[in-house]
Amino acid sequence: MAETFKLTYGTMYNPPEELHQKYDAALAKVKASLGREHGMIINGEERFVADKFEDRTPADTDVVLGIFQKGGVQDANDAVEAAKRAFPGWSHTPWQERIALVRKAASLMDERIFEMGVIVGMEVGKNRMEALGDVAETADLFRYACDQMEANQGFVVEMGRDPLTGYLSTNTSVLRPYGVWLVISPFNFPCALTGGPTAAALVAGNTVVIKPATDTPWTSRMIAECLRDAGIPAGVFNYVTGPGSTLGQTLIDHPAVAGVTFTGSYEVGMKIYRDFARGRWVRPTILELGGKNPAIVTRHADLEAAAVGIVRSAFGLQGQKCSACSRVFVEEPVYDALVDRLVELTRKLAIGDPTERNVYLGPVVNKSSYKDFQDFCADLGRHGKFLNGGHVLTEGAYARGYFCTPTLVGDLPYDHPLWKTEMFVPITTVGKFQTLDEALVMANDVEYGLTAGVYGTEEEVSIFFDRIESGVAYSNRPQGATTGAWPGFQPFGGWKASGSSGKNSGGVYYLQNYMHEQIRTHVVKL
Ligand code: NAP
Ligand code: MG
Description:
The protein contains 14 helices and 24 strands. The chain has helices at about 15-30, 75-90, 95-110, 115-125, 130-150, 190-205, 215-230, 245-255, 265-275, 305-315, 335-345, 365-385, 435-445, 460-465; strands at about 35-40, 40, 45, 50-55, 60-70, 155-160, 165-175, 180-185, 205-210, 235-240, 255-265, 285-290, 295, 325-330, 385-390, 390-395, 405, 405-410, 425-435, 450, 450-455, 470-475, 495, 515-525.
């Protein structure tokens, strides 16, 4: 790739030509290999079971991407046991060796980025640049975890010496891994949200069981292969596939699981939190949950930057990002001008097969999301006004996929419940405000607190930063009003109902979540 180009969600709008050529070559290769069966990986061995499930692309439900194992109780137990057996060896492997292996896995991911990007695109329905971004972000999350371990020299810190006479009493703080770490991931960023927590857990010295979303098992299998091919020993990571409600629940209920990172919906996350609390002691529970992310546009804003940023964040990945911009508050005097531009830009978005070069919007992920979209539109059509969209696409090339039009809704009364519900489909509601204070009150008046954006003056931006209740806050950003975080640049995490740890992933405080402190006092009589 061109030496000067670094792919991030900020730079992805102007990729070099070479990137498209490589993607096209990988697309042809992956298409020639569809329909194969893939095992789980438990204790370094392929595991096949009697029950299977099909992974189909939401762009064309006739196409079977692969056949995957419907793992059950036995597989969950075996995976945890394998991770438990591998823990003493891995946790006592010097951190320098652990990060060398994780860095190797990141390099393999770089080498496989186009193939993996195609798989992400087909499985999720994600457009090419966003899919490549998901893989590139994962490799960077791997490296970021390694870099943090290195920068902190394994988290060994000399504390004060006790003020004793006749003794030399030294104190050393050491961060140490917990044990078996469970990673349960969602469909929408199947690479980054499986790989990121896995890498952090492994670098810290934990062993891992990965359970991906049933809509996206293939991407996680590719991550597992990178870990395996990098030489990470058997049992240190295990990859199991199957329903969250059975396989996932068995993992959550397993007493030997020492900690969990769950990324997904608020409902499932809170259930996991409560179920996990039934263990005999409190165990670390990192939850990364939903969002209802606002953009605020004041009358002083650069309306072009605002419109571009909002459309990107509202409709990138069909509104199925936890960080999607789903609420827009506009100061009354510029409401009409902004709405006109939003509609104009939204109409230009190409909808179709997400692996095609010029497509921006692919399908929504599955039948249930497709139905959600139609149900929400029925409700919104009765209580608000469609500024664009409001319907599904069923003709021609759209006939066998879950394609929805990007939908902007105006005139929805502020007491309508959909102002507060995470819809997770390409629908954004737009409303007016009179004062910045009023906009901030509305922006914060939801349970979620993940991301938020503002467009306005320097003074308005500083008021926004001070008062907005969100883990990620952006100002005046055409690259995305509420989306587009990157490890090492914008660490990602949520407040309130959006997250539990208060420490964002891809940031300087994250890796510590995967370790507990031991203070070592050593006394020598003088
Ligand atoms: P989901 O339905 O909550 O599923 C997430 C994962 O949990 C899947 O692997 C699922 O398996 C599993 N699961 C379901 N029930 C379970 C149980 N009882 N025990 C253990 N595991 C269980 O979420 P999704 O639809 O995939 O993803 C969308 C949601 O994720 C949105 O709410 C979005 O905002 C949120 N999200 C948050 C972030 C963040 O960083 N804050 C990032 C991305 C997405 P199955 O697939 O087999 O059901
Ligand atoms: Mg789901």
